[in-house]
Specification:
9 helices; single chain; signal; DUF3828 domain-containing protein; 4-stranded antiparallel beta sheet
Length: 197
């Protein structure tokens, strides 16, 4: 009986470690970022903790904006997503919490839209390396949930911020009147989500 107990403990530890090694915090963050870049939100949700609301609100808002905006604006948003380059720069684990630091090179859309508001013009800049970019550090916090690493927080993610960016883009690309309609729809959508409707 004395020999069985240590073997059982070692076996439990080995299997626990194996489950984390299969889907490390770094791998989870990489898969999540790739899903968001590809507008694959159902996949992105699978990497998010059940305790989170901020990231879910942000993803739901992006989905909604894509649904209500004209193709010209959606195309610009897609181009901006496709141009993002992200790198994991550091991972640290403390018991059942992990911190994954990222460094992103993202399109500076404010600068880009000063140059051109035409999706074809943005595509040209993207293909020929002329798209203005900026660097942005980030950090994901992960927790162990049901035996897997899940993202519980992403520094910098805010549905309010996403709404502001979307309406700014709308104004630059579509004009003030159409941007006002989109802003009203977004505000109504966010009110409903906050009210749990």
């Amino acid at each position: 009986m004395r020999k069985i107990t240590p073997i059982l403990i070692i076996t439990i530890i080995a299997f626990s470690g194996f489950s984390y090694a299969q889907d490390s915090p770094k791998a989870v963050v990489e898969k999540y970022l790739e899903a968001v870049r590809n507008n694959n939100y159902d996949t992105a949700y699978s990497y998010i903790s059940k305790t989170d609301t901020t990231i879910i609100d942000w993803l739901e808002l992006i989905k909604y904006v894509r649904k209500i905006t004209p193709p010209k604006l959606t195309e610009v948003i897609d181009l901006a997503h496709s141009a993002v380059q992200q790198e994991i720069v550091d991972t640290s684990i403390r018991d059942t919490t992990a911190f994954v630091k990222t460094q992103s090179i993202i399109p500076d859309m404010e600068e880009t839209l000063r140059v051109t508001q035409d999706p074809e013009g943005i595509k040209f800049l993207l293909q020929h390396g002329g798209l203005p970019v900026k660097e942005k550090p980030g950090e994901c916090t992960l927790v162990v949930e049901d035996g897997s690493w899940k993202i519980s927080k992403v520094r910098g993610v805010s549905s309010d911020q996403a709404a502001e960016i979307a309406t700014d883009f709308a104004e630059l690309i579509l004009g003030k009147d159409e941007a006002k309609i989109i802003r009203e729809k977004i505000n109504e959508f966010m009110r409903k989500r906050e009210g749990g409707i």
